[in-house]
Amino acid sequence: MERVLISINGIVQGVGFRPFIHRTVKECGLCGFIKNTSSGVELELEGEREALEVFVRDLPEKAPKLAVIESISARYTQELVGYYGFEIRSSKTEAKRNTLLSPDVCICPDCLRELFDPRDRRYRYPFINCTNCGPRFTIIKDIPYDRAKTSMSAFPMCPDCDSEYHDIGDRRYHAQPDCCPDCGPHCFFLSADGSPVEGDAIETARKRIKNGGIIAVKGLGGMHLACLPEKAAELRSRKHRDEKPFALMCRDVEAAKELCLVSPEEEEILEGYRRPIVLLGKREKRADAVSENGFVGIMLPYTPLHYLLFGDDIKALIMTSANLSDTPIMFDNAEALEKLRGIADGYLLHNRDIQTRCDDSLCWVLGGKEYFARRSRGYVPFPVLVDRECDNILACGAEQKASFSLSRENQVFTSQHIGDLKNMETFENYSDQISHFERLFDINPKAVACDMHPDYLSTMYASERAGRDNVPLIPVQHHHAHMASCMADNGLKSKVIGLIWDGTGYGTDGTTWGGECLIGDYASFERFGSIRPIPLIGGDKVTRETARVAYALMKESGCNAEADPQLDYMLANSLNCPVSSGMGRLFDGAAAMLGIKTLCTYEGQGAVLLEAAACECEGEYPIVLEGTPLRFDWREMICAMKRDIDGGVPAGEIAGRFLNTLIQMAVRMCIAARESSGVEDIVLSGGTFQNMFIMERLPQRLEEQGFRVYRHRRVSTNDEGLSLGQLMIAQAALNKE
């Protein structure tokens, strides 16, 4: 007989890990105890040495599907305590916290079956959950993950639930959010003026939605506005969201397939326990009131409340975040009643508090895996594991699609979607979430990284934090951070060629960059290639009035264009005409030239619609690469496009050749970079690589030339993912000191 002391780190709280251990120990005939700690879980077991070793060896393979074991340490001793049986002891709080927390998880098949079983005591109860499903991250106040430190602390368990909670044979054994209609949260329905409505809240909401109403629905991480797809125009009018696509929630995969093309890989991710919004290709390539481009964001129900809302007679609902323009998703009942007045026809709410806002995740499926536009619910707060030990560092991200990252050992905790840092509401949420993550994961930053742009709110926050805490402030060039992010996402250590295409980023020379080919690593980079700078007539106005970009492109290229004296004067005198090598601006200008979009109402709209319009076609426009850094001179391409436009060539064909040209230009630039450096690994990062026309072709073309090509896998390719790169660059800088 021997005793073993086992310490386990990872996602081992809130996933049924202790009940699993209890059952496994009983099967193995061992004795001892387990307890949650702020560092994970601890066990002490007594039994025969061989049985103990088998138990430790088999743990990772047999663990619950939601558990993620990062490390196991086992120390054997012949000093016995004389344990009898097995017990789950009270949690222990330590000075150092190393635990990982589970994301929110969609309703499991067992709970879904009980939800619609009239014989079950939780029949049609919208908060049904067990150790395999339900809320986690959005209800946690602090760790260890016990009921007392969650929103469920307000709901003492009834005798029946308490009995399940302590029954080793029950699926709800030690399930912290366990509850039922007698003791748990409940839903209620309020009319548009906030007055209560008698009767079944969910049935009331269903009836009003079917009658054409727009209803605010409180979910896991915030409020949605829900209505039938045919009410899209009315919702746009009320929400002042003229053209940006809405997401749909479909009752099941079969309903999704009626609207979209769904591959087996997309179906698997749609139905998986994380339940992101998946961007799926439309069955018919046409604009509609829900989405004006070639994709529709589709998700499946992920809470019991959602399943009850659909019933048997609703196939699809618009399910969009309930927020005012550029502000965070609403998550508080009183806030929704105040700010959604005039937008919502009613409110389906509940009395379980949301501790942390968390939007739905959004992705494409590329190569059978998620390719994120937004990494949030279902994935956060699980860390990105990196290939080196990191100090405690805070990386503050950029301005658009803001995120932050915090590191501890080889774990980087990247935040959920925050939004654009353009107002105080979003900034306050951003700073609150940094404090929340620091507390949850016991991280006290020893350095702060930020974007080089001096006017970003994230940069200002970083500067204030570094000064207040008396720690180093490490500014990081925007595109270098993108490159480093994709390196870290793929575990790359050596130099890479970074093809970084986005709309804007502050360059080391004080100008705006965006269509860059870099060569480097975490420690340094050189700007090997770029595109000819584009005059931005009117400065920031061009992001909305993209016809200004088209005019500048044609004038700079010597093309015939209808004269605009005011714009000509500004160009000739460089009056409010900063220049930018942003690839996003080139897309904007091309879309405006083709008449696809000249006045944008949301970021990247021109590029999105140009991709949707592009036809599969052969050939490309002239490609001119010259100078140091090696620059793509787009003027001959623009002239050729203008000749096609004047010649009546369909816009879809011109758009297709435009994209073909950029793909071939990228290949040639990377070949030149390899000849200069000998580097054969390429990373692709930046918002432009959300273009699936490019992503389905460019990697293959590069691989045909002998390159090893890497794209993002675990964080977003847009600015939301670059805080990971900032952090890795900051670590490299600290290592040099």
Textual characterization of the structure:
32% of the residues lie in helices and 22% in strands. It is built from 22 helices and 29 strands. The protein is globular.
- Poorly predicted spans: none
- Tell me the span between the first and last alpha carbons: 51 Å
General shape: globular
Q: Roughly what percent helix?
A: 25-40%
List keywords for this structure.
737 residues, alpha/beta, ten-stranded mixed sheet, seven-stranded mixed sheet, 29 strands
Task: Please specify the SSE layout and strand pairing.
Elements lengths: L1 E10 L5 H12 L2 E7 L2 E8 L1 H14 L5 E10 L8 E3 L20 H7 L43 H7 L21 E5 L9 H10 L4 E4 L4 E5 L4 H8 L7 E4 L2 H7 L4 H8 L5 E5 L13 E5 L4 H7 L5 E6 L11 H7 L6 E5 L11 E5 L2 E6 L9 E7 L2 E3 L9 E10 L9 H17 L6 E5 L5 H13 L3 E4 L1 H12 L6 E11 L5 E9 L4 E7 L2 E2 L11 H11 L7 H8 L6 E2 L2 H11 L11 H9 L10 E3 L3 E4 L1 H12 L4 H27 L3 E5 L6 H4 L2 H7 L3 E3 L11 H15 L1
Parallel strand pairs: 2-5, 7-13, 9-11, 10-14, 17-19, 19-20, 21-28, 23-27, 28-29
Antiparallel strand pairs: 1-3, 1-4, 2-3, 6-13, 7-8, 8-12, 9-12, 10-11, 14-15, 16-18, 17-18, 21-22, 22-23, 24-25, 26-27
Brief overview, please?
The chain is built from 22 helices and 29 strands.
